[in-house]
Structure formats: C-alpha cells, structure tokens
# Entry
Amino acid sequence: MPGPYVVAVSSEKGGVGKTTLATNLAIYLKALDEELPVTLFSFDNHFSVDKMFRIGQSPGSAAVDALFAPRPPEDLVELGQYGVQFIPSCSDLESLRRKARKVGDLGRALAASGLSGIVIIDTRPDLDILTQNALFAADRVIVPVKDAPSLENCKNLHDFFDRQGLSRRPLRILPCLIDGRIQYDGPFRNPHELLRAYAINRGYRCLEGYISKSPKVESLNTNPEGKIYPVLTYGRNTDVHSQFSQLARQVFTDMRSTGRRRCADLHQAAQSAAAAENRTLTRRLASLAATCPGCGQNLPVSGDRHAFYWEANERAGFLDEACFTALVFRLAYGQQDAGDRAPLLELFRETAAQSLYALRCEETSPAGSTYRFFRFDDEGREISRRQIFSHPEDQTSEVLRGLFDSGVVNRDGSLITFCPAPAKAPGSILEKSAYRNLRALFARMTEHLS
Ligand SMILES: Nc1ncnc2c1ncn2[C@@H]1O[C@H](COP(=O)(O)OP(=O)(O)OP(=O)(O)O)[C@@H](O)[C@H]1O
Ligand SMILES: [Mg+2]
# Structure
C-alpha cells in the first residue's frame, strides 16, 4: 500500500498565508498533472476550503472527522472545482480533536483510506493534537514565515519533530507575504533574503523562492461577493502566480523523488505492532494452565463461559465460576457448604463478578492450612480481608488443593490474584489494553499487600 504523499502547511503564527498557500497549491499541482489525484482538507473551521472548491450548494455527508473512521475514499471526498477533491471542513473542533487521540492516528487513517496521489492539509495556527497529527503524517511540511516573530515560532515545530524522534527532513521554511517595496542596505537586500538567512542560521531548511504580498491576491480572498478565488485563474498577472507555479513544481519533483510515503510507513509499523501483539497473545494463551485447578475441567478461552482469571508468579489460568464462587463463599463467609443458603450464594455470585481478589497461604501443617483472603474493588482498592483455617475435609479444599498442591502456586506466601473474565470470551482478558489494565490493577493490589 503506497499511500498518498502528504503535504502539511503549518505555522503557529496566524495570518501568515497558510490557507491561501494550501488551497492554491492544490490547484497549481492539479494544473501541473491532470492525472494526479489531489485531495485537500483543513483542520480549521473557517470553511475556506469548502467555499473555494464546493460545486453547488449542498454539502456532502462526510467531513474531516470521518477520516479517523476509515471509509472508502469515494465516501470521504467531494469532487470540487478545478479537479481538486476536498474533504469538507468540520465545525466542531473539540469533537474532531477527541477523534485524533494519538499523534499517528491521521497517518494510519490516510494510509488505510485508499486515497492516492497527493494530500494537502491546511492546519490551524497552533500545535494542537490535529496539527501534530498532520505534522506526524507529512512527507513535506511547508512553514510559511512572514517576519522574524513568525520565524521564532518555527522552533516549536522543530522541537516537536525532535521530541517525537522524527527526522526534521520534511520541514521547509517558505518566506510569505513578502512586501517587495522593502529594501535594505547591506548583505541582505530584502525581507525574504533576510528571513532565509535567519532560518539557515538556525539550522532550518528552506524551500526555493518566496511568496510576495499582493493586493490582488488579498482581494481574491476578501471581496464583496464573499467568495474565494484562486490565483491561477484570477491573478495570472501577479508575481504570486509564477511563485505558486514554481512552488508546485518543487513539491511535485520532491514527491516524485520520494520513494516511501510516511503514512505507508506508519501503517506498516501499526501492522507490525498488531502482529507482534497477536503473537504475544497467542503465547499468553498457550502458556495458560489447561484445566480449572478446582474441577479439572477444560476451560475454553473463547465461547460463552463464566470463569475467573487467576495469576501467580509466572503461572496463569482460569477457574470455573462455580469452583471460584464456592471457594470465595467459603473464604469470605466461612461457609462450608452453601446448602440451604443457596439464595445467599446466588446473591453473592452476582456481586462476585464486580470484585478482584487475592489469596495466599500463610501457614500449613498436617491438620490444615491458614489462608488470608482479600477482596478489592474494580480499581484495586482493598474492601475486606479475612483469615481462615481450612482442614483437608473442607469441601472447598478441593480448589485450594488444586491451586496449592498441584504445583500451581507455592504455599510460601506467594499471592494469587483473581479477576472475573468477560463471559463471552474469557481469553479476551489477555488482549493488549485489557491485559495492560489488569496488570496495573494486580500490581496495585500486590503492592498494597506487600
Ligand atoms: N500572497 C498574499 N498577498 C496578499 N495577501 C495575502 C497573501 N496570502 C494571503 N493573504 C491574505 O492574508 C490574510 C491571511 O491569509 P491566510 O488566511 O491564508 O493565512 P493563515 O495563515 O491561513 O491564517 P490563520 O492562521 O488565521 O489560519 C488573508 O487576508 C489573505 O487574504
Ligand atoms: Mg488559515
């Protein structure tokens, strides 16, 4: 899956020309190669992209937030003016941000979206999780700077790449909104040369050229019709026209010379991680005790089966629910036999599945063993503890023998921790995030008791 070549236009500084650049770049790229699929979207909610590209009035069904729930590209994009396809903007940025939880989510989603060609992302003037996702997915990040303060802001972008362990190679500064009337004496004759020198001095890479400030271009964005017109068709006699042409050619050449796509790498890394997780899960499942230490039955890890998961030292397995509740009933209430207390046992069964438990053998002699039993809430906080003595004739000693005498756990004070397993698929408790949470709970319980 090669995935699209992704260009993000980004700067924390507002009003430096990001949106103008992103929207026009899409059109100039399409003009360079009609066959190239060009897709554009914005993480901002000012709807400039929609106003510029939408044909007709009716908005499509999907918006940018749909990117994070992969769909076929035809459901995601709207074919817009000038042959550019766009993903409609999203008005609710808060809910959009909630969908992009991890920094690599967008890259993975783009790889899985089936989009090809080039994707251009216009970002907001901040480094929120959406911008971070765009930066993380980008093969090229164009950073417009218009003056010294906006160049200072670039440090945060570069730092972000460093913090994420990413190569800074995609980042390119582009002087924008350059006023051609300003001239200096000395080695740097104009603002774009000065900005370029500042940037290089800080170790930043720059794109060739710059974008001039042009009253004509400004009027294409702000006019009584409330429309946004492209430079290619309405500003051909401006410097900006030839500057955008040159920029598009650079981006196009860079794209052609980039073999691997960043989002394809992210997708592949996610797949490798999922495969590794599967192997870990298979290993975990294979190392489980094959039978219930209480009744000796085989306990399938999938299928509708009520069971409790137990772990001790390096060993783990499932206990049949009936064995476990009988044991806990005995340990927690000192009941030898449910007998005529069946309703109480039933009540207990219902609440048993909301707790976690720990058990250890504290002392043993031919007459019997002393156990300490602990009950915890679902956040690993101790609710109660109890000490009981069990002699060999106890009904529940069957389960205890299964756990302690058949080599599952030692009677040396080792702790066994228990938790209810999901009824439909007990084995799913060993899956990545469920297991991570469980280990954290067990660690909390063990630490509390040590
Ligand atoms: N080359 C240009 N010449 C003159 N005016 C321009 C040029 N490019 C952009 N502008 C004007 O500058 C203003 C800011 O441009 P734009 O909205 O593209 O910046 P932005 O970085 O996306 O802003 P924001 O950070 O608010 O999203 C707009 O009024 C736009 O019309
Ligand atoms: Mg903008």
User: Anything to note?
Assistant: The two ends are 51 Å apart (CA to CA). The first strand starts at residue 5 and ends at 9. The chain has two domains: 5-271, 287-449.
